[in-house]
Amino acid sequence: MGKPMNKFEFLKPAQALFLLYVLWEATAWVFPAWPSPRAVFGVLADNFTQSTFRAALAGSAWRMVVGYSLVILVGISGGLLLGRIPLIDRIIGSFAVAVHAIPGAAWVPLAIIWFGMTERAVIFTILLGACGIVMVSTDTGIREVPPLVARAARTLGARGTNYFWFVVVPAAIPKIVDGLRLAWAFGWRALMAGELLTSVSGLGQLLSQVAKAGQLDQLLAIMLLIAGIGIAVDSLIFKRLEHAVRVRWGLV
Amino acid sequence: MRVELKHVFKSFSHNSSTLEVLEDINLTVEEGEFVCLLGPSGCGKSTIIHLIAGLERPTSGNILVAGRPVDGPDPSRTVVFQEAALFPWLSVLGNVEFGLRMAGIPPIKRRARALEYIRLVHLSKFIHAYPHQLSGGMKQRAAIARALALQPAILLLDEPFAALDAQTRSVLQNELMEIWELARPTILFVTHNVREATGLADRVYVISSRPGQIRDVQTIQVPRPRHAEDAALLTHQRKILELLGEEVEKVLQDELGERVHFPEAQHAVPPGHAHGMHL
Ligand SMILES: Nc1ncnc2c1ncn2[C@@H]1O[C@H](COP(=O)(O)OP(=O)(O)OP(=O)(O)O)[C@@H](O)[C@H]1O
Ligand SMILES: [Mg+2]
Description:
The complex is a heterodimer.
Chain A: H1 13-30, H2 37-47, H3 51-84, H4 86-101, H5 108-115, H6 119-143, H7 147-155, H8 160-198, H9 203-212, H10 216-248
Chain B: E1 3-14, E2 17-29, E3 34-38, H1 45-53, E4 60-65, E5 68-69, E6 77-80, H2 92-102, H3 107-120, H4 136-149, E7 154-158, H5 166-183, E8 186-191, H6 194-200, E9 203-207, E10 214-219, H7 231-267
Parallel strand pairs in B: 3-8, 3-9, 6-7, 7-8
Antiparallel strand pairs in B: 1-2, 1-4, 4-5, 9-10
Helix pairs in contact in B: 2-3, 2-4, 3-4, 6-7
The structure holds adenosine-5'-triphosphate and magnesium ion.
The site of adenosine-5'-triphosphate has 13 residues of chain B, from β2 and α1.
């Protein structure tokens, strides 16, 4: 409704993808050193039959699951503490903002010093790369209870901890979900950086391996997969979740 | 519980300007009485509701409930807000149960009580619907059920039926009357509708335009159930409409006047430069 008409609206996502594909095919035809899309997709499909590749993929997925779970746990509880207890906010509020300002990859050196070239170092990188944004958005969310809702709640007898858990926290959920969606993107990047630099078996480490071996088609295939997973998780899970929450909270 | 406002003044300050909203309001609602507030838009009716609810403090004067000064909100005084103000993350059932849950009423009992009041406002088919799925009138009905479910001693209603069609409105008016006759809560009811006020209330306060002052009190001694064509009611209505007409005229004059003076009052722009800052 009322959305301004875009000049390129006729270009559906599928058509746009097809156009990109054609351009890629054309450049590969002009520059023979540049692998064609068919070759890259072929390599990618073939990869899935290799057990080492599947193990690397599973390893990355596992670290992401563990790391992201920690992000949810630490980010939300940290944000709640920041928003609820002024003293904690005073002490570590600016620390959380600083953590949030450091790109995930910049945590890797510290992670390696503390944990060595281990899986734990990668998970630590995900945690530090992504929990800042969750903390900050949770903190903002619980400070911004809509006044109308706050009034209604108070006249209905909500106060103290009840008010916090049954009013403040649910009112903050749209903000928290925004933070979680960004944290997924940040965490995914941090995972790749961590694996690249620690050589823990995973997609990131495969990337550095094939680059050293000069396998351009493999390199592109893996990068494509990394992009694909990032986009798929974002649009299949987070975008939908965010939309559902915004609808229910009456924000759209 | 008896509600009493004694010499209540209320003003809101924004930056350096002050808006006088209520001026020397003296008002009582006797225990178990049904009182309506009528007045032009912006005269401070919602502000009076918020003051009694304990959501705002008077600038000066006293607000007493059962003889004690109001100190913050309390579930014995529930409010149906002008804008429904439902919790968007809770279903209709969840919203109506909310106050009962805060009061620590066990789940089975509070479910039963919530369903009872949802039935009363004819929302039984929508117990699992969320506020964003409800029409304006349905939201308002859910908010009424939510306020009633706590069985408050004082019920504050801020234009609760304004968004409803005439049919639903009269059904809910009857239901409110029934509840009032049964449980005898003290009711303060804000409305724009003169017929509604005279049809429901024991007494009607007419508030003047801003700053809000009590312009008149009409005691309506017509026995219930009342009929719309009752001669005494019509007399009251005519009287009130006359008073309101003067007030509404004042509001319009005031607002037109205000718009003319607005730039000077806000920024102390020198005369003649009010519209030419960037030219
Ligand atoms: N929190 C506030 N801050 C500043 N001004 C306020 C505030 N609440 C109300 N006012 C002002 O007080 C005046 C009275 O508002 P109020 O909502 O009580 O009017 P009302 O009689 O309920 O009007 P309506 O019939 O349109 O609902 C208005 O001019 C409004 O702008
Ligand atoms: Mg109002």
